[in-house]
Amino acid sequence: MTKTVGDNAVRRRALNRPAAGLIGFAMLALVAGCGSGNDDSSPDINAGPSGVRWQGYHGVALPHTDQGPKSTADGAATGFARTPAGAAVAAITHTVRMSVAPDNQWAKVIAKEVVPGPARDEWSVNRVQLSITGPASPEYAPRLLGYKITGYTSQKTATDIYTEYSDGSRAVNHTTVEWFLDDWRLRLPDPGSTTRPIDAITELPSDIVKLEAPKP
Prior knowledge:
The chain is an alpha+beta fold. 19% of the residues lie in helices and 25% in strands.
């Protein structure tokens, strides 16, 4: 039977657990990409995105930059530059959108923003058991602080995403995007993975790329 998410406590848990099979912000390629783009000649992974502006998506402020997304339709954001900054913005965008997408959009978001496979299938099975109709409460919505790319190639990029909540707590989400069908898509952790997808933190690293969302 489908359950309705009706309280903020459930929403917060959904925004803090990115593992495959769990719904939320923390819910949050080995597949060859199309085109040439195989030159991994040491791009600057510390160069942040340009032209940053902020747009809300169901209660969470997301960056829209020169590096993407180029378009949004039915809740799904696509069109990211094949650069470190493009990969990082894609990781942030996909993680949030799949986490807070409402009932009438989440299937389209997953289809356009997540690499297909067992992890995506398991996530979908769990998501269909919930009902999300309204935006995340400002009290529990994550606010982006910045990111750090921990591994980059033109095919696969690992990015740590740093966020803060209204109570002052902070967390880091460990994400991976892959170049799939001419765009960066989120790779969810394998269903059997024991790697922690999110960790609580007390201090921000000094070397993150600052990409701080406006305060509500």
